[in-house]
Amino acid sequence: MSIKSRSEKSFSTVFLVLFLILTCGVFLNLKIVTDRIMRKKIPGSSIIYLPKGEYLKYATFGYSSFLADLIYIWAIQYYSDYNIPDRFLYLDHIFSIIAELDPHYFDPIDLGAFIAAYEAQDLDLALKILDMGLEKNPKEWFFPYMAAHYLQFIRKDHERAQEYYKITMSIEGYPPIVRRLYADAIFKAKDYERAWQTWLEIYNTAEDERTKRVASNHLYIIKATMDTDTLKEAIAQYKEKYGRYPTDLSRLVSAGFLDSIPRDMDGKEYLYDSQTGEAKPPTIPWKR
Fold first, then answer.
1. Confidence of residue 34 (pLDDT cuts 50, 70, 90)
2. What angle is formed at CA 168 by the lines to CA 163 and CA 172, rounded to 5 degrees?
3. H/E element holding 271?
4. Domain residue spans in the chain?
5. From residue 186, how far is each of 18, 102, 176, 265 by CA, in Å?
6. Pairing state between β 278-280 and 271-273
7. What is the spatial distance between Cα 251 and Cα 259, in angstroms, rounded to a whole number?
8. Looking at the DSSP assignment, which residues form a beta bridge with residue 263?
9. Torsion of CA 57, 61, 65, 67, to 10 degrees
10. Cα distance between residue 97 and residue 93, in whole Å
11. Which run of H or E residues covers position 234?
12. Tens digit of each residue's pLDDT (9 = 90 or more) over 95-148
């Protein structure tokens, strides 16, 4: 390399460093100025000047990950300030900037979705953030898994949760618990036949006794649920016809409402209260 080439390269490096320092100085000055303005007048004033990440990335000269770190640290402080009532207004904007600057930076996407789901109570926004993470990282099972988790346990949308669990299970490396949560979502959606088949497959392919025991208990619950639903319907029909509850479950057979009385998965009879007409399992599944 000639002396002239080395000189030109050194000058370019110095120029880029000086320009980066100047850019940071401008942003810092803007922050100082906006921080002097009451937040009640301009909610989220500290971030309204930040452009989209795809544009901001060009101004970092290869230091986009570093800037993503700075914005992430700032975001943690900003969204921890409960004195800012409108702080969630720019949630989507700020975390999309971080994702554009560093698409493979998982923590901000996880935290952004968490804040949206639990703090802002905006599950649709949480799902949007997680979908963005999956779009930028299609081989990462974590993002659809968290989306399914939020849908299943916050919104109780078990059908939609199943779709995200399916996406999770299509990605290599997902943990075994995902399939069990998927099976539970099917059960919670009251698709008992499919839930039974899924848990049975988990039981048959389990590599350890603990998983087999968990699957067995869920199979017990599914069968008990289907059986007690059958008994409940027959008991209601009996009462409608005779004006009272049957004295025992065998009356349902003699009266022609059932061909036989079901037993639980362990072969035990279901408990029945003739005063209330309630039938229930004889065993607590987790104590079998």
1. very low
2. 150
3. strand 271-273
4. 14-137, 219-288
5. 58, 36, 16, 20
6. antiparallel
7. 11
8. 269
9. -70
10. 6
11. helix 209-242
12. 999 999 999 999 999 999 999 999 999 999 999 999 999 999 999 999 999 999
